[in-house]
Amino acid sequence: MAERETPGAGTPLDELGRTVAALRRAARADPGRYLPRLGYTLLRFGSLLATEPGRMAESVDVLGEAAEVYRRLSGEHLPGLGIALQRQALGLGALGRHQEGLGAAREAVEVWRGLVAEGVEGSRAELAGALLVLGGRLAETGRHHEALDRVHEAVETRRLLVDRADGTGRTELASALQELGVKLGEMGRQEEALVPLRASVAAYRETAGAAGGRSVGDLGGHAVAAFATGRTLLGLGRTGEARPYFAEAAALHTEITTREPAATAFLDHLFALHGHRLTYEGGIAAWTRTPDGPTSPDRPEDGTSGGPNAPDRPDATPPTRTGTTIRAGASAGDETEAWTGAATWTGTASGDETAARTGAAARTGAATWAGAATWTETAARTGASAGDETAARTETSARTVPTASAEDGPTASGPAEPAAPGRGGPTSPGPAASAASDQGDPTPPGPAGSALFERIDRLNAQGLALADSGRPGLAVEPLTEALALGRAAAVGTGAVGAVSLARTLHHLAFARAWSGRRTEALEAVDEAVHLCRRHLVDAPETVRPLLADATDSLGSRLAVLGRHRDAIAPATESAALFRQLARADPAAYRDELARVLNNLSIRLCDADRHAEALAATEESLEIQRSLHREDPAAHLPGLVHALANLALRLARLDRHDEVAAPTAEAVRHLRHLDRIHPNNDVAALAESLAWLGGYLRRHGHRDTARDTERAAGELRRRAPKPGR
């Protein structure tokens, strides 16, 4: 392995910069002699720049230059390339340049895979760290399920590296297990998340008796894992089980305070982000709000009393710190963290590199500790980035892709979708929009609990009514006003205000999309998904339906911008969430599950995953048939769309003789469809049927082809004028 030295150790930044400049000149004159040293020095310089406020962009450029040097050297210098790429990926993620970060992270993983295959010492540990970084970059672009796969691989890799005799590698495994638990929690899989979170805490406990004691970094990682586990249990309503974990986190906080008092700022910030605080008695207490407005301590989660002299809630602004331990901790949800001050690289062979955060650069995500009083970078969490868009294609439906054509083959036929989240159209709240009232969402405190929230609700209803009537451009104005009020109302109101804000963002995304403002629509729904993730643990019954709807919308927004592969992860997640909801309340959510499965099939088809698309379509059709039997009039449009999509999927797989039956059935049902709702994607259905007519004619089904083409022509005549 290449020599590694903690960047910047004993070398002032300006002196290192001068050394880099001199080596650049020398390498131009004698590359064979000076390139290796230039690459190593660039790596050190770029890593040190990352610790300086406001210099992350410079760091990324320097690390990119280091990577180019190592590419020229290759061979024995490939470990340097892997490290440079990995650190560059971290910096790009911090700057919000998610697609570039993803590319660097992928290349880093491939470098380490190659070195593992060659049997290079230490490369397997580095691969595990690179996989965690790649998971973070994948999550930033909405590819949550791909991210989960990479985190799983990192966990298994680190599990293999634990020395059963002396326990070496156990801390790194604990860190990866925590990341796995956090990722599962972000995806709404709280019960599953508990398994790796508890395993992480157990692994940290096993290191407590290590010779020489544990570092402050290890203690912090243990505290964060315990708190994340407690938070997850609390979100599942298992308060009694949560208390010991909170007590454990509080005890670790105390131990850290005795060794390095300044190092507890990140834990205090983490507790505050989740509405908790450290009590004078040394416990962790949850905060609640009284109707009078100010915050007051609720029952402590570890069973201790908050007491009359409990401190006020910490300020919501993240603390500014400098030094060697910079990290706002992990959570079992999706939290925004503003990073300031300095951070250091671990400089170890473990591959757990610290991401330096400067200024007020916000990131989302969960984090775990690495040893030696530094933090390891884990996953940055956003549903998708609006900054990486390919050519947009015409959007004909709120949640479906454009029409199919005879030239490019069958694409999709959209379901009979409402103009906004929920069943029954925008004028009714639907399951996601009404979840707060249905689940007994607490009344927000002060003015935000009455007049302000009522005003926001009225503006939402006004905007949705305008969108439903085919005037989405006019709908944007009241929804934009609702958004401004919602941001004000969300300050200090916890999950209640956040859910209201997320709902408004979701509605605004639809209005913007139907008005042709697709990039702005993506930004709005992306923020809605982020807010839902942050508060899923706080109010799961309220947030889960909205998150399910918002992730479906996120997939659609990405798809209409041509980002078809990015769209699969949120669409898959939406289907998983609606499955959970439908199991608990079939009457309320079966039709929603059928709808998002149909959309998932479209996303998969766009990505050329046709066998998977067919499976999703068949599941959607099965539900639609059941719903149609119960209420034919209400569910006829959904059944027709599902049948047309089944025919398209079969055609994609060249199952020629099976295409005619579902097409003919769809055409028969269309004869009974008297009224076409303006938000039903009739244009896409008409084009799909027209394509199917041509396909059937080419494969010898002349009678069915004729009926199908006639039905397509009739639909075109009856279709409402486009309002999107």
What does this structure look like?
The protein is mainly α and 724 residues long. It is built from 26 helices and seven strands. The strands form three sheets. Strands 1-2-3 form a three-stranded antiparallel sheet. A two-stranded antiparallel sheet has the order 4-5. A hairpin with a 5-residue loop joins strand 1 and strand 2 (284-289). Helix 3 (56-73) runs antiparallel to helix 4, helix 15 runs antiparallel to helix 16 (472-490) and helix 19 packs parallel to helix 21 (586-606). The radius of gyration is 27 Å and the shape is globular. The N and C termini lie far apart (58 Å).
Would you kindly provide a brief summary of this structure?
This protein is mainly α and 724 residues long. It has helices at 13-29, 31-49, 56-73, 78-94, 98-117, 123-140, 144-161, 170-186, 190-206, 216-235, 239-259, 265-273, 430-433, 435-438, 451-468, 472-490, 494-514, 518-535, 540-560, 564-584, 586-606, 610-630, 632-652, 660-670, 682-698, 702-718, and strands at 276-278, 284-289, 295-300, 336-339, 361-364, 368-370, 374-376.
* Main structural class: mainly alpha
Largest sheet: 3 strands, antiparallel
The overall pLDDT average reads: 75
Q: Largest beta sheet: what is the strand line-up? A: 1-2-3
Fraction in helix: 55-70%
Distance linking N and C termini = 58 Å
